[in-house]
Amino acid sequence: MRNASRMMVLLMIAALFSIIPAAAAQDDDPGFASGGPIISSNSSGDPATFNPLYYGDGTSGAVVSRMYPSIITLNPQNGLEEPHLPGARAAGWEFNEDGTVVTITLREDMFWTDGTPVTAHDYVYSTTVVRSGEIDSPREAMWETLADGTPAGGKITDIMAVDDFTVQVTFSAPDCIAFSDINNVPVVPRAEFEAVYGDDFASMRDEPLRVPEVVHGPWFDPEFSPGERVSLLPVEGYADNEFGNVVPNEYILLSVPDTTVGYERFLDGEFTYLSVPPAFQQEIENSPDFQSYRFDANSFSFMAFNAADPADPQPGVDENGDAVDQGLHPIFGDVRVRQALGMAFDKQAMLEGILDGNATLVATHTTPNSWVYDETVQYTFDQEMALELLAEAGWVDDDSDPSTPLICDGCLYATDIDPDFAGSPLEFELMIGGGSETGEQIGIFFDSQMEELGIIVDLQVVDFNGVLVPGMLGQTYDMVLLSWSLAFPVDPDVSRFYGPEADVPGGGFNFVSFNNERLNEILEEARSVPGCDQATRAELYEEAQQILFEEMPYLYLHVPSSLTAVQNYVTGFDPTPVSRIWNEDAWFIEGP
Amino acid sequence: MMTGITAFILRRLIQAIPTFFGITILAFTIMVLAPGDPIAILTFDPNTKPEERERLAELYGVNDPLPVQYMRWLVGDNWRQFDTDGDGEPDTRGESRGILRGDFGESFISQRSPISLIVERLPATIELNIAVLVVSIPLGVVIGVVAARMRGTWFDQSSRVLAVVGDAVPGFWLAFLLILLFGRYLDLLPMGGRCAPTRGGCPPIFQRLEYIILPVAVSALGGISGWSRFMRASMLETINSDYIRTAQAKGVASTRVWFHHAMRNAIIPLATFLGPVFVSLLGGAVIIETIFAWPGVGRLLLQSVTSQDYPVIMASVVIGSMLTILGYLISDVLYAVFDPRIRL
Amino acid sequence: MATATQVAKIAQEGPEARPRSKTLAQRALYRIRRDKLTLISLLVLLMMAVLSYSAPFITNQILQTSYTRPDPINKYLPIGTEGHLLGTDELGRDHLARLLYGGRVSLTIGFSAAILSMTIGVAIGVTAGFYGGPLDDFIIWFVTTLNSLPQLFLLLMISAVLSPGPVSLILVLSFLGWTGEMRLMRGEALKLREREFTLAARSVGASDWRIMFIHIAPNAISLLLITLARSIGGIILAESSLSFLGFGIKPPVPSWGNMLSNGLELLRLAPHLVIAPGLLITITVLCLYVIGDGLRDAFDPRIAD
User: Fold this and answer.
1) Which residues numbered 164-223 in C keep a CB inside 8 Å of some CB on B?
2) How distant is the Cα of A497 from the closest Cα of chain C, in angstroms?
């Protein structure tokens, strides 16, 4: 769809950050359900399910995470997993000496809406259902193997309840990243699920929109009207926020497929809050009618180079884990060409002209909110030097007329692949997913800048799902413009994007066929740092980022600056870079 | 007469069988030609392991040869056994019953049955389309008849121009401008949705008419212009026919000839249009439903096409086609019933 | 038995409009010359076409600008800015130049797709009607099948498959559009194949091909002309609707449709990006429809002069 901002591929849905240390209740504090409804607009589809164990789409996630918060809560101020945040199920945790077993202590004062306590057995039940493989949950990947022994790809080997309020999680090896997997599965009420489904876990799929009877969260009783909305009611007695009760009287997720109309409806006061489209950020910020909050998005845009031969895509490693000869891309197989394009593109002009200055330029796979981000790492814009690098790689301008294309005169890899390549112009295809306004504009701008140097960019705006994804994952493309949305907690591990195991045509996400031995070593080492000491890991990751900066598997572009706007009739809006709505259950809404 | 009609309907139903198979083949061909990869879309997440991707491909059977996929889609596979553990012995029974037995599989995106997804969206679409017909037919007929009667006058000319203008404006453009004008600046009408976002479902339609005014206004425009053009032509044809000339010659008052004799005859073919028009409206509301956030079938289809949700697309196409065939059948029957000159 | 839809179709297109002699054609020409509305529409359409097709000349020589080169510092300039008569778009490209180039794309799509689908329809229709038999049955089965599939569904599906550029869009729209003309020509061929002049031509040894396309096809020219005008308009509209749904011509190639749907999002920042392409589409389609109506009246034998 035109408006679906497909450039932003939501990789992971950040958990709901629900709790803040409870302030001393004051007399004039708003009472339970004393405020108006929170109305939020949703331009993607209907929720697929209210079952928190197997949902996969964002709309379901928005509903489910409000009824079944995760076991460990992230601190809304820094996005890190922290023990004993009020509202979290976990009161604390402790690793054993070799870092393979973590013992999590649960709070004893958390109750389901039927009055029974939230226990370790509930969590163990949730993870057991996922591990059974019977519900085809996307969360299976937290486990090393499924119940029937099928490898699932994760690191967790066992989860057990030591007592009612203690959970013990065992990993196959010490791993600094797998800890977050614990949060993949929320806690469900075992008693209700067992009563409804018995041993037949697969039957959970039969009635995906069953309204749960018992929840533990600020919201419950979802009412779904197809194509219109999902409505949730506040839970009376849910006490884990600033006021000791849920203040809004309803939460409504309203389906608004056209974002242009959606924006007008927000201006008209219909929705409580909105993530403002880039073109209108200035307008909102200057308007006295809204509260707004600007923050660095947890995502970045880039143009990926296919470094391997696009005519014959091969996996990075074979079944035995040995490296495979993947051939080289006639143009981008040469790192000098990639570096030259990085220097040739005037990103500052892009920032000012297209992004209205609302972004941060980056040159590595990090965002400003990461603990290894270094703002001084930037490409230099130098077209002269870019041309020199290209000439070194064999791409020359034969008649010194800047308007004619650069041609291959003994260029390293192109002639390697096809000796007849000599004399061919420096020409490649840049794929952009349709529907992303900013993406299309950057592509056109890049195209015109390359043209000035004699590089021919064949710009292809294509259907995201139909053409871009198959071409990119199939590794038959030249260059693709895309954006990754990252998740909290921010972790600098990048093996999913640049590791040889992830280089699988048709599926893996190392579709750039990047393979750097030193990088692989660093990433492996950083995952298993004893005790996950942040300083030691940071050092390793900084070197990793340096490698990515120099080798340029991607031409890294920018981290967009986002703007969230909230109506003036809302009191209690307390945004953080991690979440704008973490305390929404304490918002007091007077309008519209 | 009754047996005549029954035989006629039967004959038409039998004729519809090859059409139905043609539709399934055509729809299936287009879908498999699609370059996309639904499994890749389902697993577009760097956290997905290759094992998961293979399992899904196996689950949805996208690796089988095309004729096998077509046959399984059509007649199911629960009558054969498969070898799933690779020991050469068939061990597991297929699970699909095939579309001929009403099994359209399940949506790739929501894992729900395509039929139930379509059915839960139908009321909104039908409501909108009936409203459009209720507005556009009477208006179109009246304008058309008056224009024919006042042929060549200012009314005829301006109704013709207006009809053409109504047809020539891009619908989404007009819709957006109307939303801005009436919804945002004059603040007279809601800017989208089917009713106020309250729990317990939408109230009866007469309590929320303000929500349907704009979508109906935009979609009815084309209808009004079409119906009025049709009625004008039909009236002119009838008025020139022999029996009307005879009536006129016999001295029947001119107004009575026009509105009693001629109009009644001119309106017959119009009745026969209802079937196909209603059906075409069902599929044609994609834009209106999208821009007005109307919770209908059109949006479901658009979303399925964008996300390459094959089972839902196929179900919509097959059901849509069956409705179209039914629509044509109904109009042919109506035509035969209304017009005694047609022998069955 | 004629089906209701066929009857209705003929009624809609204008009944019994079949010129049989030169005098009818001459009379039609005479009538059009007196029909001011149709003449004005023709003139406007001609102007649009001339301006659009001289887009490169106008852009390079007169406006001295470029329709592709972004200049983001000068984006959203309003109408009347010096050097940019109709302002600039979201990338600072000259809006007038883009409208001209967009018109070239939209008009080309409209005319080519309409003419192509008419050619397909006439060829298949005449063949089916002339030969009859199993070939006719097969063609009728195929057409019924195609018509039973909801058109917009089909359009969306195919557009998603082809990720359209101008050429593939023309092919898709022609593939879906030819059935009306086909039915029309088939009926004509069925009726005329037993007529005296056909038999006479056959008796002097004329080939089937010659009879079909020299003797039979020209008899329906007036009907085809009327259909053509409306179908070009319909296709231009369809192109803009597809753009709105995200399945139209993809940027950076400009078309009126994608400029309009793209501009809608920016209405608050630059109203001219919405108003201009919307008006151009409306006016062009309006002219085509008026011409279609004018032709119908001109060829209508029942209307006295």
Assistant:
1) none
2) 28
The answer, for A478 touching chain B at a CB cutoff of 8 Å, is no
> What pLDDT, in 10s, does the model give residues A373-383?
888 888 889 99
- The confidence band for A402, taking pLDDT boundaries of 50, 70 and 90, is low
Q: Share the mean pLDDT of chain C.
A: 83
Cis peptide bond N-terminal to A489, omega within 30:
yes
* SS3 call for C44: helix
Burial of B75 per CB tally in 10 Å (0-12, 13-18, 19+): middle
- Using only C-alpha atoms, chain C has a radius of gyration, in whole angstroms, of 22
Contact A492, A548 (CB under 8 A): no
CB-nearest to B237 from C11, C144, C264 is C11
Radius of gyration, CA atoms only, chain A: 26
pLDDT digits (tens, 9 = 90+) for A67-77: 998 888 888 88
Longest dimension (CA), chain C: 75
Would you list which residues of chain C are within 8 Å, Cβ to Cβ, of chain A?
Answer: 68-70, 72-73, 75, 90-92, 160-161, 163, 243-247, 250-252, 261-262, 264-269
Cis status of the peptide bond prior to A189, with omega within 30 of 0:
no
ipTM, 2 decimals? 0.85
Contact (CB<8Å) C153/B320: yes
Report d(CA C19, CA C278) in Å as an integer.
37
Q: Contact B291/A261, CB-based, under 8 Å?
A: yes
Q: Is-contact B168 C282, C-beta < 8 A?
A: yes
Strands A251-255 and A38-42: parallel
Alpha helices in A408-533 (DSSP H): 412-417, 437-453, 469-473, 495-498, 517-527
- Quick one: tokens of A7? 């450039």
Supply the pLDDT for residue B191: 93
Q: Are A176 and A529 in contact (CB under 8 A)?
A: yes
Give the model's pLDDT for residue C17. Answer: 43
Residue reference for tokens 């109305």: A39
Neighbours of B256 (CB within 10 A): 11
pLDDT at C6: 40
For a pLDDT cut of 70, what percent of chain A falls above it? 93
Rounded distance between C-alpha atoms, residue A335 and residue A392, angstroms: 11
pLDDT at B50: 66
Which residues on B lie below 8 Å from C3 (Cβ)?
328, 332, 335
Tell which wins on pLDDT, C91 or A408. C91
Task: Give B80's pLDDT tier (boundaries 50, 70, 90).
Answer: low
pLDDT at A489 over 90: no
Residue A589: strand pairing partners:
A570
DSSP category for residue A177: T
* End-to-end Cα separation, chain A, in angstroms: 30
Place of tokens 């099948």: C145
pTM above threshold 0.90: no
Structure tokens at A571: 């009191």
Using pLDDT thresholds of 50, 70 and 90, give the confidence band for residue B272. low
Q: Please state, in angstroms and rounded to a whole number, the distance separating the CA atoms of residues A274 and A262.
A: 9
In angstroms, the Cα distances linking A285 to A8, A52, A351, A438 are 23, 37, 19, 20
Nearest to A95 by CA among A173, A8, A17: A173
In chain C, the residue whose alpha carbon lies closest to the alpha carbon of B299 is: C245
**Cα separation values, B314 from A399, B117, C289, Å:** 57, 13, 35
Runs of H (alpha helix) within chain B: 2-33, 38-42, 50-60, 66-75, 114-149, 154-168, 171-178, 209-239, 242-249, 254-256, 263-284, 286-291, 297-306, 310-338
Of residues B171, B287, B313, nearest to C157 (C-beta): B313
pLDDT of A377 reads 87
